[in-house]
Amino acid sequence: MKDFLEEKMTKISKIILILGILIGIVGIVLVYLKNKQKPLDYEYNMKTSSIDKNSGKVLDVSPSISSKYLGTLQFKTKPNSKNMAQALLCVEQYKNVEKVDLYMPDMGHGSQPPTVNQASLPSNLQSQASEGIGFGCLSLENMQLFMSGLWQVRLFYKDGTVGLFDFQILE
Fold first, then answer.
1. What domain range includes position 1?
2. Which of 8, 95, 115, 161 has a CB 3.0–4.6 Å from the CB of 141, allowing a cystine?
3. Do 18 and 70 reside in the same domain of the chain?
4. 20: helix, strand or coil
């Protein structure tokens, strides 16, 4: 009888050990998946230009000119002309941004400015941030992209630099 109980306890111990290992593996996989940053389909990089002080117009940007500041714009969902858009805007020298607006360069008009608030830096961009460049994020909400075509989110810096994010609204 004693051998029978020891044999049963050994089997139960093995089963508990196996279950514990499986639970540990599942836990590790879940933590990995939670921390893994998925790439965004609606992410755009910034190019920079300057503004003509007399006319107030943004000067043309040559594709061969590198940006003065780094920046990325990440929409939370695919932007369209039917719904208000929301985005996370992470840029260098974000504290020196005076104004953010929405503009259609092909049409010569824009839309009401988005609601802008400071936001925390996501983990996938923390490696790019350092104290010296003043990298930070702004939350853009209530973006009215009311018609299809080429749109720009424009950032106006205190030094006269303009950051531009170009994207298409198809519907």
1. 1-36
2. 115
3. no
4. helix
